[in-house]
Each structure stands twice: as C-alpha cells, then as structure tokens.
Amino acid sequence: MSFTERSTIAELVTSLAVIALFTWVIVTRQAEGAFAGPEGLQIWARQILWMIPVGIGVGIGVSVLLALAYHVTLREAFDGLVDERDRIIVLFGWKVTAITISTGFVAALAALAWGVTPLLALNLMLASFAAGDLAGNAARLWRYRRGY
Length: 148
Prior knowledge:
With 148 residues, the chain is mainly α. The chain has one domain (3-146). 84% of the residues lie in helices and 0% in strands. It contains four helices and no strands. It has helices spanning 3-32, 40-74, 84-113, 118-146. Helix 1 (3-32) packs antiparallel against helix 2, helix 1 (3-32) runs antiparallel to helix 4 and helix 3 (84-113) packs antiparallel against helix 4 (118-146). The longest helix has 35 residues, at 40-74. The mean pLDDT is 90. The chain crosses the membrane at residues 9-27, 47-70, 91-114, 120-142.
C-alpha cells in the first residue's frame, strides 16, 4: 500500500472521528436548548466556528504523525513525488466532493423553501460538507485501489 493510500485512509478515519465529535456536540447542545431563542443561530454559528479549526488541527496533526510513522517504520523518507496519475485521482476526489456539497446545499435551500427551520437548514448544509469530505476521500481511495 502506497503512502498516498495510507494517508487517504487516515484522512477518512480522521474525518469520521471529527464528524462524530461535531455531531455529538451539536446534538447535545440542541438537546440542552442552547440553540433555541432569538440568539440560537448566533450561538450555533459560534459553535461551528470553534469546531472548524479543531477539525483542521486534528487533520494536520494526523498527517504529520502518519508521515513520521511512515519514516520511522520503513526507514524511508517520503519523496513527495506526485505524478499525473496522482493529480488525476486528486482532481476526481475534488469533483466528487464539489458535487456532493453542491447537491446538499441545494437540498438544504429547497428544504428551507418548504418550511423547515433555519437551524435545520444550516445543519443540512453542514452535513453536506461532511458528506462531501467523506465522499471525496472515499472516491480517491477507490481510484488508488483500482490503480488509476
């Protein structure tokens, strides 16, 4: 298994962990009634704005630890060589991510137009971003496993 495949798997596992944390925090805070009232959307937005850097930091930390573990266990330095196949696979992953996010965004807007609460529409948009990240990483892994 190549380094890029391993890093894609690590990104998938990290994304699942961060999404689980986000979901737990949002559901817990919702059950407490933290998002009710006139300032509910503001409180939700502040919560998400704090959670985004946490997710990015965890992702960077896992990437660094993976690179260190790769170097220590295999006694090889990651050369960072990216060929045309890697570029095509990464672009395919980005395309899947963009399509998933766009579809979720439009679905959230449609749900809002049909009368759901703004908080639910924002949660649908947030879920579409999470699904887009997972779908893009899964598509990249699938392409790497296929060989192109």
